[in-house]
Design goal:
Radius of gyration: 14 Å
Number of helices: 3
Strand content: 15-25%
Shape: globular
Structural class: alpha+beta
Oligomer: single chain
Strand order of the largest sheet: 1-2-3-4-5-6
Length: about 170
């Protein structure tokens, strides 16, 4: 759950680029972006990142269908693509290469669940008209806009319609 203190910080201080039109260099299942060198396409956009980041140890573990440990890392808002995008970044250590504890299909189901159970309540509680909601899982904290060739990350993009997350194939 996002605590009120964190929501106000995320809403007041967040400004970061979202995925470019048409997506990015994604591979994997159902649009999941499994990138070993993550966010490299964001650095060219030149947008400053101003968002809160918290220690995974200090975060509350979120419940997801796979049962893997998942923690909210940060919420970013971006109007760079011409419409408001919200980016919810989560840490999920079990997706690490070689860990073998959470696979791509499980991660996709978890991201669907996180959109519905975390992102949509955030959007509804704060009456935000977001054009897109991006959900990302990373096996470790990676500063937004920086590449980490050792990190495993998955991405999904959604729109919100009638209190439901609609998966957007890019």
């Amino acid at each position: 759950m996002i605590t009120p203190r964190l929501i106000s910080i995320a809403r007041a201080a967040s400004a970061a680029p979202a995925a470019p039109a048409g997506g990015g260099p994604f591979t994997g299942c159902r649009g999941c972006g499994h990138l070993l060198s993550a966010f490299t396409f964001f650095t060219a956009m030149g947008c400053a990142v101003a968002a809160w980041a918290a220690s995974v140890d200090a975060q509350q573990q979120l419940s997801v269908p796979s049962g893997q440990p998942v923690y909210l890392s940060e919420v970013l808002q971006d109007e760079t693509p011409g419409a408001l995008w919200l980016r919810f970044r989560f840490i999920a250590p079990d997706i690490a290469q070689g860990a073998g504890q959470a696979d791509v299909d499980q991660a996709a189901g978890d991201m669907d669940h996180l959109c519905q159970s975390v992102a949509l309540p955030y959007v509804q509680d704060h009456q935000i008209a977001a054009a897109r909601i991006a959900i990302s899982l990373s096996d470790r904290p990676v500063p937004f806009g920086e590449a980490d060739p050792e990190a495993t990350q998955y991405f999904e993009l959604y729109s919100a319609q009638d209190a439901t997350c609609i998966w957007e194939a890019f």
